[in-house]
Amino acid sequence: QKEPLLYDLVAVVDHLGSHVDTGHYTASCRRPDGWWRFDDSRVAPLAGDAPVVGRQNYVLFLERRCAPTEPRAIEQQRASEPHAWPHVIDVDWSFLTGSMSEG
Fold first, then answer.
1. pLDDT value, residue 21
2. What whole-number distance in Å separates Cα of residue 32 and Cα of residue 45?
3. End-to-end distance of the chain based on CA atoms, in angstroms?
């Protein structure tokens, strides 16, 4: 890796119930003024010490720190452009073209 990849938690979806096909889903999202809970038509700020991560979490949403926010500034990650994959370094990519690298 060229630089450490750090992520911030920005939202969670919670499931309240014993099975995924029954129960109730809510979401909590981080905004500049703190964490907010979205529960159907009700939206309320969370107390500063309220836990966001727990057993009720169904999905966690993470955002990479220092990532570009302009979509055109983000290189597409595809097999033909492995240099755009920030989590991979020093890999022999010859298998993508069907050729063998000389060792």
1. 83
2. 12
3. 23
User: CA-based angle 84:76:90, to the nearest 5?
Assistant: 15
Distance between CA atoms of 6 and 69, rounded to whole angstroms?
Answer: 15
Q: CA 9 to CA 63: how far, in whole Å?
A: 6
Phi, psi for 34 (deg, rounded to 5): 120, -170
DSSP state of 95: G
CA angle 32, 35, 37 (to 5 degrees): 135
Starting at the edge strand found earlier in the chain, the sheet holding 34-39 runs 42-45, 34-39, 24-31, 7-16, 57-64
Q: Mean pLDDT, to the nearest integer, of 80-101? A: 57
Average per-residue pLDDT in the chain?
79
